[in-house]
Known about the structure:
Number of strands: 2
Mean pLDDT: 76
Helix content: 40-55%
Largest sheet: 2 strands, antiparallel
Structural class: mainly alpha
Number of domains: 2
Order of helices and strands: HEHEH
Strand order of the largest sheet: 1-2
Number of helices: 3
Radius of gyration: 18 Å
Shape: extended
Amino acid sequence: MSPEDHRRGLAAAMAVLIAEFNTYLDREGADPVADSVGYRQGTLWLSPDELAEMAEEMRRILQPRAGNQPSPDRAPYLLSAILSPPGSRPSRNRTVDRLPPATCQFTAPHQRHYDAAVRVVARDRLRRP
């Protein structure tokens, strides 16, 4: 695939993800906390071997559940994963790059913190020329 093909593919995947999420939020009784809705983004420093190992570990975790059939005690969950190097390679020497990965997850009332957003804003400001 060309870079443009990848751009179009990612844009299509994001459009579907956003549409599904909006449909969920618009339905009566949507409760992101009770439904364990979560989203997070962060940076992992991995060697090629570590990346391959992580991908295999994720497959081992998800594969047994991928065959689950609908039942009265199950609800469908949309899981989307995107793995990509960042647009620019972060410096290993700057303090801001050693901050914990930025995360934003709303899975319980006490986890509704916006610290991650603050870190992202601070990080972006420090990276500006």
